[in-house]
Design brief:
By secondary structure, the chain is of the alpha/beta class. It has helices at 22-34, 53-60, 78-85, 96-104, 110-117, 133-137, 139-150, 176-187, 221-232, 260-271, 315-320, 340-351, 361-364, 388-405; strands spanning 11-16, 38-43, 88-94, 125-129, 154-155, 159-162, 168-172, 196-201, 206-209, 212-214, 236-241, 253-256, 276-279, 286-288, 309-311, 329-336, 355-360, 369-376, 379-387. The strands form five sheets. It has an eight-stranded mixed β-sheet, with helices on both faces. Strands 2-1-3-4-5 form a five-stranded parallel β-sheet, sandwiched between helices. Strands 6-7 form a two-stranded antiparallel ribbon. Bound molecules: cytidine-5'-monophosphate (C5P).
């Protein structure tokens, strides 16, 4: 998904301590810069055994800071200057040794020194651990990790998987793209903290036989962007997705379904335990009355098979009809090809939901950008054309505002 510069104006100190995962820091620097951040790289001596300051300078566009004795700083206080300028310090990779140093408040090299010298209230410290699984599991490391977390550091990962040493387990550093997403999410206002949000996304697939079916051109991008934006805003998010090949946003619980009936069966029990329901899925209106157990073959007569259709359940309307105590705050989408606003207004009343998000179906299906109009009881509000993630973040703000105005769901 194309990413508008979500880190525009942010100054990130990216610290590298020693570990094979230093190779991922190069890609991470690129992604942070692409997202609009300025990146000041700080490397320990050990990190320079794994990747050179030349690479990191070229990618960040700034000389790497590597020594607390660097006389180029006019006041000779690199640790103060670096930590005062930063919106956040991200140490990736954070080695077992580096975390141990932080836990002890050591300050005998530049990176741990500037972490210690940072103004704790203004300059968050994020750590992406990277180490062998035995090192990660060792009680000393676990003790140190608990200590640095108690001291205010935020841990990103580690993940489980293949390790450079050939072993498999916990301790892998998150991938560069995951770390970049974590940092972007970190800076989003937590407008939905404590809320639970349920989203449907993508098309449905209504089987004709085991190899064929009817579906539509929905890509799922808008719904996935809403799930991501809500998770970034601090919500617990469940995403019920039709058949799409999109990556699950970090921190989101995903339930995959195929048909409208399966989507309804997944949504209904979940709806009661969520505060907000956003129906972005392009649910097929009809399904074949019967789905053949075996592939329907040509019979040589030249006659196509006669297909009969039945109407699918309306998932959004079903949720909106739940008793008030069990009903989440409902948001519907209206993808129309003409008279978009008039249809959206009617749909809002017909489905009994407080908010409908109108868009032009043919102009948005499959695309990365969109243009939305929010239709509620008070009137209309346009969200101008933008990439779907930016629009999703704006929609999250609008949902949070309306819920707060109503005193919550
Ligand atoms: O009736 P229409 O399909 O135009 O309504 C669109 C809205 O209703 C969307 O929010 C869509 O996710 C939802 N919907 C649904 N179940 C259906 C049809 C639509 O949840 N069977």
């Amino acid at each position: 998904m194309s990413e508008v510069q979500a880190l525009q104006g942010r100054h990130i100190v990216l610290g590298l301590s020693g570990g094979v995962a230093c190779y991922k820091a190069a890609e991470l620097t690129r992604l942070l810069v692409k997202a609009g951040a300025t990146v000041q790289v700080v490397m320990t001596e050990a990190a320079q055994q794994f990747i050179t300051p030349v690479t990191m300078q070229a990618l960040s566009g700034r000389p790497v800071a590597a020594s607390q004795w660097d006389a180029r700083e006019p006041n000779n206080m690199a640790h103060i200057n670096l930590s005062r300028q930063a919106d956040a310090i991200l140490v990736a990779p954070a080695s077992a040794d580096f975390i141990a140093r932080l836990a002890q408040g050591r300050a005998d090299e530049l990176l741990s020194l500037l972490c210690l010298a940072r103004p704790i209230e203004h300059c968050p410290l994020l750590l992406a651990p990277a180490m062998n699984r035995e090192m990660w599991a060792h009680p000393a490391t676990q003790r140190n990790v608990a200590q640095v977390a108690a001291d205010g550091a935020r841990l990103l990962g580690p993940a489980a998987g293949d390790q450079a040493c050939g072993e498999i387990g916990d301790g892998r550093m998150l991938e560069a793209a995951e770390l970049c997403d974590e940092l972007i999410a970190f800076f989003q206002p937590k407008l939905l903290a404590g809320r639970r949000l349920l989203v449907t996304a993508g098309p449905t697939f209504e089987a004709i036989d085991p190899v064929r079916g009817i579906t539509n051109l929905s890509s799922g991008k808008m719904g996935f962007a809403i799930a991501r934006a809500a998770a970034e805003a601090g919500a617990e998010v469940t995403l019920v997705a039709g058949p799409v090949a999109l990556a699950t946003p970090r921190g989101v619980v995903r339930i995959d379904v195929q048909s409208a009936e399966q989507m309804l069966a997944a949504v209904l029990p979940q709806a009661r335990r969520h505060d907000v329901f956003v129906a972005t899925a392009a649910v097929a209106d009809w399904r074949p009355a019967q789905s053949a157990a075996q592939k329907i073959k040509k019979d040589g007569s030249g006659q196509p098979p006669a297909l009969a259709f039945v109407e699918n359940p309306d998932i959004l309307a079903s949720v909106a009809r739940l008793p008030a105590a069990e009903r989440p705050w409902c948001v519907g989408f209206a993808a129309e090809s003409h008279d978009v606003l008039a249809h959206a207004r009617q749909k809002r009343v017909r489905k009994g939901v407080p908010l409908i998000v109108a868009n032009n179906g043919p102009a948005t299906f499959g695309r990365d950008d969109n243009e939305l109009v929010l239709v509620d009881a008070d009137g209309e509000q346009a969200l101008p054309r933008g990439d779907k993630l930016t629009l999703a973040r704006q929609l999250v703000i609008e949902i949070a505002r309306r819920m707060a105005a109503q005193g919550g769901a």
